[in-house]
Design brief:
By secondary structure, the protein is α/β, with parallel strands linked by helices. It has 15 helices and twelve strands. Strand 8 and strand 9 form a beta hairpin. The protein binds guanosine-5'-diphosphate and magnesium ion.
Length: 443
């Protein structure tokens, strides 16, 4: 895509700051740079130059650094001009208006990155990593996003694609030149190659699953009978007073949401109204919401009072959970329990004294499968995981039909397409629109 038009946007966040940046991208911006700097000599590429930024009447809007990147040696692959002025919303708006006057148009969200993608500066997984790095809320997520951004994830995908292409060439050769004496397979053990590929895809899927956890986290719902200490537990886990706690059963009615990072993995916790028979219509409505929250959760923390153990009500509640929903029974109020009661198997905590909370957190990490291990974690998206699983399933079928070259070739092709969709070599326009529309403007 050779874009003819010039785009501009404020690249820094709104508000007061030391520096504010406007970024402009398009074909041949040397003249543009001269004009915005009030007619200075054409800028040298990649030199920071102190300049005045001047409006149409020759009046100075701001002063700062002007950096000119000559395409293709730039982020977008086109000419890029960066104007680093003061971080004032008003000054930046004036400067942006001047850019528009000089023929630029306002950039769409993600349009700079989209141009970088179309100009082959980065692939699709890297473009997604740009957005993920900006959105990263923990150090672990940021590090993983950076790994994808620098292309480590894409490199592994491309390595797999290359091996697939190599195998496809040989298999297709056998099909097309079946009558010739040449053995295109040259004693290649197809089955061995396929199972090596499967292993590699599995390793990458494992690593992507970790990245997915870092990015999306785990929606965790706290449920149980009234007064067992669900709200207290929410406060203890998040170390903040999110939920109102009283000794009156039925205190919590509305859902209360709070997030906490455990080793960088976000747990999106939802505290709920305790489940019981009640004539109070407000509480009934709250309990209704509890079940709605359960439906949307990835994990249920069923809280019980350790002194009562698992009651009949708790058992009923457990049986009402969706069958495949991971669940964890937590026995609370350990500080009030007798030694006999403490001998509960299961997770024992006290929301009041804090006992058992660090263990519970470690346990939760295990429960959701957080196991960074030796493989580097790439910040992955559901889309990547789905593509890896699809590739894996085609490789499985390939192994089954390995004796019939026509069928084998088709499965290899499909596996390759699935993997290539991650880096964007086989992606529909719909997908691109979807991905880039979620960016912020100026990126
Ligand atoms: N001693 C003790 N009291 C607790 C503990 N957790 C909660 N409580 C008390 O139990 C009562 C109900 O707690 P709350 O968090 O509102 O329970 P919820 O109805 O399940 O949300 C409050 O008086 C809390 O102070 C605990 O671990 N130890
Ligand atoms: Mg409560």
């Amino acid at each position: 895509m050779a874009s003819a038009d010039v785009i501009a946007a404020i690249a820094t966040a709104p508000g007061q700051a030391g520096v504010g940046v406007i970024r402009v991208s398009g074909p041949s911006l040397q003249g543009f740079a001269s004009r915005i700097a009030g007619g200075m000599a054409p800028p040298h590429p990649r030199h920071a130059r102190h300049s005045r930024f001047v409006d149409g009447q020759g009046e100075v809007i701001d002063e700062g650094l002007l950096i000119y990147f000559q395409g293709p040696a730039s982020f977008t692959g086109e000419d890029v001009v960066e104007l680093q002025g003061h971080g004032s919303d008003a000054a930046l708006r004036l400067l942006l208006a001047r850019c528009l006057e000089l023929g630029a148009r306002l950039a769409q969200p993600g349009e700079f990155t989209l141009r970088a993608f179309f100009n082959h500066k980065i692939d699709l997984a890297q473009a997604e990593a740009v957005a993920d790095l900006i959105a990263a809320e923990s150090a672990a997520a940021a590090r993983s996003a950076l790994r994808s951004l620098t292309g480590q994830f894409s490199l592994q995908i491309r390595g797999l694609v290359e091996q697939l292409v190599e195998l496809r060439l040989r298999v297709e050769g056998c099909i097309d030149f079946a009558d010739e004496a040449v053995d295109f397979l040259e004693h290649t053990d197809i089955r061995a190659v396929l199972s090596r590929l499967q292993d590699a895809v599995d390793r990458l899927t494992g690593s992507a699953a970790q990245g997915l956890l870092l990015r999306s986290g785990c929606r965790t719902v706290l449920i149980g009978a009234p007064n067992v200490g669900k709200s207290s537990l929410l406060n203890a886990i998040t170390e903040e007073d999110h939920a109102l706690v009283t000794d009156i059963p039925g205190t919590t009615r509305d859902l209360i949401r709070a997030s906490v990072f455990i080793e960088g993995v976000p747990f999106h916790m939802v505290d709920t109204a305790g489940i019981r028979e009640t004539a109070d219509v407000i509480e009934q409505a709250g309990i209704e919401r509890t079940w709605q929250a359960v439906e949307q959760a990835d994990l249920a923390l069923v809280v019980a009072d350790i002194r009562n153990g698992l009651t009949e009500v708790d058992r009923q509640l457990l049986s009402r959970l969706p069958q495949d929903m991971p669940r964890e029974v937590v026995y609370n109020k350990a500080d009030l329990a007798s030694t006999a009661q403490r001998a509960q198997t299961g997770t024992v905590v006290s929301a009041v004294s804090g006992e058992g909370i660090p263990e519970l957190k470690r346990h939760l990490l295990q429960r959701v499968g957080w196991n960074p291990g030796a493989e580097p974690v790439f910040l992955a998206r559901e889309r990547h995981r789905a593509a890896l699983l699809q590739a894996r399933s085609h490789l499985e079928t390939a192994l089954e039909v390995a004796d019939t070259f026509e069928l084998l070739a088709e499965e290899l092709r499909l596996a390759q397409n699935a993997l290539s969709s991650i880096t964007g070599e086989f992606s529909s326009d719909d997908l691109l629109g979807e991905i880039f529309s979620r960016f912020c403007i100026g990126k």
